[in-house]
Write a structure and sequence with these properties.
Two copies of one chain form a homodimer. Helix content of chain A is 44%, strand content 10%. Chain A has a two-stranded antiparallel sheet. In chain A, a hairpin with a 2-residue loop joins strand 1 and strand 2. The first copy, chain A, starts with a helix and ends in a 12-residue tail after the last helix. At the A-B interface, helix 3 and helix 7 of A face helix 3 and helix 7 of B.
């Protein structure tokens, strides 16, 4: 039976994932994606750990509904910031840091430095 | 009567202009300001000429109402991207390029390069 494993199609969940390359993404789309504070937080949390270790299900501490969280992940994937793959019931993530940085130099660094870079008047 | 000229208060129009330093501005505010394509176009047009040469009245070719245009200029001023001063009936502009670039390295360059940097699929 082992040869059947190799030709088995990917699960419907994995097949439904569409990925964009950062090279196809406009500045407008990138600014729209990173204009949301929850999405910037997801990006920062992913940058804080190794690739493919954080599942979407580990972000439920964020103050948004589960459906909103799914939308945020889809937006990040569609601007080439995120690669995702399913392993069993878990959807794992990789931040496409180098690729995004090549396309939009400096933008991701601003997001990653945001929390330690509070403006002079103390506003977040 | 000449000494009266020196002590004359600035006009109400000039006095009403509030300026923010980029150092006081959050990344959220900067992304919100530059998330609008008309505001990015204003920034690019200002970058294309010397400081203090473009008056607000020279932007009427942009496809927005005059009141909307005034709002866009106020938003750019409030995130430290724009310095303005009144000369007679003209409101002149200076792009605070170096100051903004110090606060948000790379962000302004992405905006200035946007028009010649079309993504691979040809979308704007």
């Amino acid at each position: 039976m082992e040869h059947y494993i190799d030709v088995r199609p990917p699960s419907n969940r994995t097949r439904s994932l569409t990925h964009a390359s950062p090279l196809e993404v406009s500045l407008q789309a990138a600014l729209d994606a990173l204009g949301d504070p929850v999405r910037r937080r997801i990006v920062r949390e992913l940058a804080g750990g190794p690739d493919w270790t954080r599942a979407c299900g580990t972000f439920t501490h964020l103050p948004v509904a589960k459906s909103t969280l799914s939308h945020h992940f889809a937006v990040l994937r569609n601007v080439g910031l995120l690669e995702q793959r399913d392993e069993g019931t878990r959807r794992l993530n990789r931040l496409r840091r180098a690729e995004f940085d090549d396309r939009f130099p400096g933008l991701l660094s601003l997001v990653l430095d945001e929390e330690r870079d509070v403006p002079h008047d103390g506003r977040p």
